[in-house]
Amino acid sequence: MIEINCLIHSSYSIPHLGRFISKDPIGLLGGNNVYAYAPNLVSWIDSLGLDKEQKEVITPSGSKEIYTRRNATGNDKTLTTSRAARREAMRSQNIPTSQTYQSQIHKDSTQSALSLKQSGRLHVEEIYRDGQKVGTIGVHKDGHEFHDDKTFEKPHYHGKNGEHFSYENGNPRNTNKYVGGCPT
After folding, report:
1. Nearest to 157 by CA among 104, 98, 81, 69
2. What distance in Å separates the CA atoms of residue 67 and residue 71, rounded to the nearest whole number?
3. What does the alpha-carbon distance between residue 26 and residue 98 come to, in Å, rounded to a whole number?
4. Cα end-to-end span (Å), the chain
5. 146 Cβ partners below 8 Å, 6+ apart?
6. pLDDT of residue 106
7. Where are the beta strands (DSSP E) in the chain?
8. Which of 6, 121, 126, 165 is most solvent-facing, going by the fewest CB within 10 Å?
9. What does the pLDDT look like over 72-112, one tens digit per residue?
């Protein structure tokens, strides 16, 4: 007799075959195999049926745990590249993106020890045009890991009102002059 387990709501699976016995309700939109609509039938749990982004994190105690991406707030956006995220952050501060600028990134000297512990190292990008400072943008090039609620945020720039412009690919501009140890 084949053992059948109920893992996700009423969707039954056969773990040793690595597939569900019913088709994915969204059909081929979920991929070519309509019977495999969860990443791993044995270890993957998605109790609400919502696939949130996850990553493995080494905690301060040294153990490995799975963290879930935090919920977006306000005007947060996730963009494909670091360049697109930087441009959104510049627009939020009314800095035209069609001009050429010089910039310098350095550690934020005003960041408190508590903020550093909770949010990771914040860097500040100072943007200049013709020797005049035209704006400042905060950047968390490594993102955040919030150990209290096991959430994380991807690398991102900060907007004028605290919004996060996260990015999937790239690093802060590698043509900038980095001061204080912010290598890309």
Report:
1. 81
2. 12
3. 42
4. 56
5. 67, 70, 118, 152
6. 86
7. 5-8, 11-14, 19-20, 54-58, 64-69, 77-81, 102-107, 123-129, 132-140, 144-146, 151-153, 156-158, 164-169, 177-179
8. 6
9. 888 999 999 999 999 999 999 999 998 888 888 888 888 88
Which structure tokens are listed for 140? 């968390």
> For the chain, which residues score pLDDT lower than 70?
1-52, 173-184
CA distance 65 to 126: 36
Residue type, 43: S
Show the tokens assigned to 10.
């009423």
Structure tokens at 116: 């550093």
Place of tokens 């081929």: 28
Q: Quick check: helix, strand or coil at residue 98?
A: coil
User: Which residue has 């590698």 as its token pair?
Assistant: 174
Q: How far apart are CA 184 and CA 174, in angstroms?
A: 6
Instruction: Report which residue type is found at 46.
Output: D
